[in-house]
Amino acid sequence: MQQFVVPQFIDVEPKIIGAITLRQFLICIVGIGIMYMAYAFTDTALFIFVSLIIVMTFGPLAFMKVNGMPLHFFLINFIQTLKRPKIRVWNKNLTTSEVAATMKRNRVVVKSKEIIQSKPRLAQNSLRDLALIVDTGGIYKGDEL
Questions:
Q1: DSSP letter (8 states) at residue 10
Q2: Predicted TM-score of the model (pTM)
Q3: How high is the pLDDT of residue 40?
Q4: Where are the domains of the chain?
Q5: How many CB atoms lie within 10 A of CB 50?
């Protein structure tokens, strides 16, 4: 039998410069580029103020993690959660014709129009026999099964 090396730590991003990953490096480059544009187009006092805002924005985006995931993934998930409806309502009062109309609209094909009956509950000894069959891998044959 051949043996293969199983990769470990596949969720760890590769480091390119010291302890900085490619994602962190690119976020820092974008922040530095915006700071350079602020330096070129503003005076010194405004540049310092804008630089502080840029560092306070791009620093956490590059290096901060929330629950083990990068901050920008957390922010995207947070925004998607805010867009979803807050309450999901299950309307149990639909008639059979309304359900059929909904199924027809969604093109759901039903092979049988019979109402599914609930299965009878197994007796305690039947459950014991079934557990014994599963535990023995099918070697034990139950009395009624």
A1: T
A2: 0.53
A3: 96
A4: 15-83
A5: 17
